[in-house]
């Protein structure tokens, strides 16, 4: 609906609709949840969209200025969370508009006055705080991207937990970084969307983009906003930020303020992520390695899902975040490893701690809601139980048997001391807690004297009502006389129609029903008033007590957040300790060398899948990418396990640098700065890229960016084009990787010809996947061994896959012909005569085969040692070489 239309329609409509339209015009990009009594109503196009998205009935209410009926639909307030979450998941933003005054107040202004309403919050995917709207085990990040001069900065925050980060970014690294953070919403200045070099990037993140006016990204304003938020005179203590980082973090705060309508959440100290502190994993690699979700977008089947043994939501979120961002500093990695090792070694202690954590509620998210004024009694209970757990955790961890050191010692100190708050909440809260404070009944008996009195008055009055009923029964002689209650009449006396004559003058008639008549008395009305007053007073007092307890909590928000993080890191470390024992993982040694030595490495996901399926155990394999064997060329049949081997080494590196144990017997890794891969690709038709184009774009990124500290995994480069094109590209890539990038690399290929390079390029070594032929069958051993594979066994795999028998047989014939070196048109034409299908092959000129290994000329040149030749011999050799060329012609 356009603003223009709204304005034009304004004069002819009801005052309520006028109010609706004016609020809606301030939020044109949102669905407006307009509060009317117990419902949030939606009108016009909002109603049409929401009814379709939620599959609810679309009705009509009144008429628009042009006489057309106004579409309407509504959702009940008490169940609106579910509807809200469905709308947010479908990509809508929702502005929640509440009544902000009592209807009685509005009436005072005149009978036609409309109750005042205001938008109290704009719900967007990146600003959620409710448990029902989020996944408990993953973060929900809002990100902001800003550019100032030549610099770019990215900031991100999880409003539900208070995490707040910022880092400098370069345009070419942006996809990798966004892939790592995986925000639910990305805000950026309008002007960035117009930059041609960022078109592709924004195409990928289109579904989460919220463009904002450029002025919101002003770095000077941003800096003052940050200072104001943290109430500091300078941000120096938080890190050395560039202008773009400040602009991004400030714009993020601005957007939060805008959507929360002034109600700011608690955010932890802005944490600065230095350039190079995190192993960069580009977007395609992250996707293809299925780190936190599979290619089809599910958590199940990802690396995260098979290593996750955490027992709390916060622990799971920390594991997800750390897995997505492995470190590069060996010292920091080893500090984490020490903590995991501690728990791996301390069996009983680990069990006790995990048992405790299992029962511990989500402190972070409860704190987030309370600090936004959106919490309820259950959040207070979560704080009480979470903080109580910190004391028990400290007791568990302070036994003499396993003295804590390093990072663990810090975590124990961070647990803090929250005795008085726990004690107070323990006394204050009752047993059965409602979700909302306004529902009442959550303060325990004995906590507040006045509340106890009011409650006694309430229940006493109820007893008095029972007594009154008995008295009236006696006085009237009507045994069936009852005192009842409903929302319209309040308390009333009810007798059946046949007893009406027995009701004396004191009974004031209220209502006649078909079979019954209802009355009240002065006495009953007074009693009812007492009951209602004490109930209202009790409710108001409980709300007051709630607010005071919530403010006790928020006053200590920082210490609680630190304790919550400590609990999360204990869960993180003890779960990885548990995993190491259960799956027999080893502690990796990570340092600043260029080593990559894995002994008995396994693929964590395939290994567990095979075990579950009850199939043969996973075959462990070694990898050693030491300097003189930096680049492994791996050949071998289809289905032999090349891809698995490549991926397992990448996953081991990620696990190691996250600070976790790894599926291997021994592992030594020199910290990797960036991980690149080119493993499997799909079309990117949305951007007009074919499979081969995608493959080449990814390969180009690797060759342009990989360093000697990088790990590169390449699976079948060049397979998407004609054989000789593909082989030539693969050939040149190996040379470039070896000579220019000098990265540690695993290169799987079906081009056996490439192994000729192993003679010429010093650090390229040939490996292959072993197979055994037995009684005409091929058995895959899944073992990596030195040397080159002799065959691809593609036809064998085709048979396994169920290609029709005649096709397989025919393929074998063709293969044999080709393998016999009979690539001449004679042999092919013989085949083609037998089957017209092969005619097409004949029509294509056969490209000259690329020499496997050095040519005769190169060989002869290589054999010459100029230092040992006389001038005469040298001249003779020259003639001989020239002669070789002539003969070749
Ligand atoms: N080390 C291993 N131990 C046991 N089974 C394995 C191992 N490696 C691979 N496999 C099994 O073999 C299957 C094929 O492996 P993979 O996809 O890695 O083969 P590939 O050589 O890359 O094949 P292709 O060339 O056809 O892509 C896997 O799905 C897995 O079940």
UniProtKB/TrEMBL annotation:
Q: A GO biological process this protein is involved in?
A: mismatch repair
Q: Which GO terms describe its cellular component?
A: cytosol
Q: Which UniProt keywords apply?
A: ATP-binding, Coiled coil, DNA damage, DNA repair, DNA-binding, Nucleotide-binding
Binding of ATP occurs at 636-643
Q: Which residues form a coiled coil?
A: 339-366
Q: Which intervals hold domain DNA mismatch repair proteins mutS family?
A: 710-726
| MF terms in GO | ATP binding; ATP-dependent DNA damage sensor activity; damaged DNA binding; mismatched DNA binding
Q: Name one Pfam family in it.
A: MutS_V
Which InterPro entries does the UniProt record give? DNA_mismatch_repair_MutS (IPR005748), DNA_mismatch_repair_MutS-lik_N (IPR007695), DNA_mismatch_repair_MutS/MSH (IPR017261), DNA_mismatch_repair_MutS_C (IPR000432), DNA_mismatch_repair_MutS_clamp (IPR007861), DNA_mismatch_repair_MutS_core (IPR007696), DNA_mismatch_repair_MutS_N (IPR016151), DNA_mismatch_repair_MutS_sf (IPR036187)
HAMAP family recorded: MutS
The family note in this entry says: Belongs to the DNA mismatch repair MutS family.
Function noted in UniProt: This protein is involved in the repair of mismatches in DNA. It is possible that it carries out the mismatch recognition step. This protein has a weak ATPase activity.
- Protein name, entry field: DNA mismatch repair protein MutS
Q: Which organism is it from?
A: Aestuariispira insulae
High-level lineage: Bacteria, Pseudomonadati, Pseudomonadota, Alphaproteobacteria, Rhodospirillales
Gene this protein is translated from = mutS
């Amino acid at each position: 609906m356009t603003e223009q239309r709204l304005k034009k329609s304004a004069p002819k409509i009801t005052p309520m609709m006028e109010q609706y339209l004016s609020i809606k015009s301030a939020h044109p990009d949102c669905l407006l949840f307009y509060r009317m009594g117990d419902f949030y109503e939606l009108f016009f196009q909002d109603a049409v969209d929401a009814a379709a998205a939620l599959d609810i009935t679309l009705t009509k209410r009144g008429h628009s200025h042009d006489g057309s009926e106004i579409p309407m639909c509504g959702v009940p307030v008490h169940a609106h969370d579910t509807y809200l979450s469905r709308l947010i998941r479908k990509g809508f933003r929702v502005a929640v508009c509440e009544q902000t005054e009592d209807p009685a107040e509005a009436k005072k202004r005149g009978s036609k006055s409309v109750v005042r309403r205001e938008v109290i919050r704009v719900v967007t995917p990146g600003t959620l705080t409710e448990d029902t709207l989020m996944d408990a085990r993953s973060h929900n990040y809002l990100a902001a991207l800003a550019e100032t001069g030549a610099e770019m900065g990215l900031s991100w925050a999880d409003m539900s937990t208070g995490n707040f980060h910022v880092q400098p970014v370069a345009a070419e690294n942006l996809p990798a970084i966004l892939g790592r953070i995986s925000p639910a919403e990305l805000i950026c200045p309008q002007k960035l969307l117009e930059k041609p070099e960022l078109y592709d990037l924004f195409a990928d993140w289109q579904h989460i983009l919220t463009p904002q006016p450029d002025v919101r990204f002003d770095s000077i304003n941003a800096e003052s906003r940050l200072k104001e938020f943290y109430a500091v005179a300078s941000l120096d203590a938080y890190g050395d930020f560039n202008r773009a980082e400040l602009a991004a973090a400030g714009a993020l705060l601005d957007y939060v303020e805008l959507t929360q309508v002034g109600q700011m959440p608690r955010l932890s100290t802005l944490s600065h992520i230095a350039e190079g502190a995190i192993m960069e994993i580009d977007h395609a690699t992250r996707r293809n390695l299925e780190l936190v979700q599979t290619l089809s977008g599910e958590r199940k089947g990802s690396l995260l899902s098979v290593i996750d043994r955490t027992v709390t939501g916060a622990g799971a979120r920390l594991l997800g975040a750390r897995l997505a961002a492995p470190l590069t500093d060996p010292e920091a990695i080893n500090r984490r490893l020490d903590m995991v090792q501690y728990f791996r070694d301390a069996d009983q202690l680990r069990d006790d701690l995990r048992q405790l954590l299992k029962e511990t509620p989500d402190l972070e998210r409860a704190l987030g809601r309370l600090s936004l004024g959106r919490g309820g009694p259950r959040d207070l209970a979560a704080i009480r139980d979470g903080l109580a757990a910190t004391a028990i955790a400290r007791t568990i961890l302070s036994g003499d048997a396993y003295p804590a050191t390093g990072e663990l010692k810090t975590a124990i100190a961070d647990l803090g001391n929250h005795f008085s708050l726990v004690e107070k909440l323990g006394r204050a809260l009752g047993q059965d807690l409602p979700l909302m404070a306004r529902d009442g009944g959550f303060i325990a008996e004995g906590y507040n004297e006045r509340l106890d009195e009011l409650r006694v008055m309430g229940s006493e009055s109820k007893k008095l009502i029972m007594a009154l009923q008995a008295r009236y029964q006696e006085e009237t002689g009507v045994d069936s006389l009852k005192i009842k209650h409903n929302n319209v009449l309040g308390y009333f006396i009810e007798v059946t129609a046949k007893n009406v004559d027995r009701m004396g003058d004191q009974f004031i008639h209220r209502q006649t029903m078909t079979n019954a008549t209802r009355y009240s008395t002065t006495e009953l009305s007074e009693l009812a008033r007492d009951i209602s007053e004490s109930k209202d007073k009790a409710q108001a007092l409980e709300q007051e007590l709630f607010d005071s307890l919530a403010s006790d909590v928020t006053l200590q928000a920082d210490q609680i957040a630190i304790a919550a993080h400590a609990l999360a890191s204990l869960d993180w470390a003890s779960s990885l300790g548990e995993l190491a024992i259960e799956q027999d993982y080893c502690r990796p040694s990570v340092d600043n060398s260029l080593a990559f030595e894995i002994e008995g490495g396994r693929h964590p996901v395939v290994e567990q899948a095979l075990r579950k399926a009850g199939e043969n155990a996973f075959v462990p394999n070694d990898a050693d990418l030491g300097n003189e064997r930096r680049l492994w060329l791996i050949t071998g049949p289809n289905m032999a396990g090349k891809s698995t081997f490549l991926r397992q080494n990448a996953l081991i590196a990620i696990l190691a640098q996250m600070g976790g144990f790894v599926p291997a017997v021994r592992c030594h890794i020199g910290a990797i700065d960036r991980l690149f891969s080119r493993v499997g690709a799909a079309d990117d038709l949305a951007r007009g890229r074919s499979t081969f184009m995608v493959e080449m774009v990814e390969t180009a990124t690797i060759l342009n960016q990989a360093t000697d500290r990088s790990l590169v995994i390449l699976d079948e480069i060049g397979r998407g084009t004609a054989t000789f094109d593909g082989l030539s590209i693969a050939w040149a890539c190996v040379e470039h990787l070896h000579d220019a990038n000098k990265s540690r690399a695993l290169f799987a290929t079906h081009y056996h010809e490439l192994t000729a390079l192993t003679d010429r390029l010093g650090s390229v070594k040939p490996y292959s996947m072993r197979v055994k032929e037995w009684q005409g069958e091929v058995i895959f051993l899944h073992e990596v061994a030195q040397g080159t594979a002799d065959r691809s066994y593609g036809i064998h795999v085709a048979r396994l896959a169920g290609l029709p028998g005649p096709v397989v047989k025919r393929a074998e014939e063709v293969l044999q012909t080709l393998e016999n070196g009979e690539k001449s048109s004679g042999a092919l034409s013989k085949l083609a005569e037998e089957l017209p299908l092969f005619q097409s092959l004949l029509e294509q000129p056969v490209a000259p085969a690329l020499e496997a290994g050095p040519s005769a000329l190169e060989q002869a040149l290589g054999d010459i040692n100029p230092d040992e030749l006389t001038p005469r011999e040298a001249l003779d050799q020259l003639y001989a070489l020239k002669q070789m060329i002539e003969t070749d012609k």
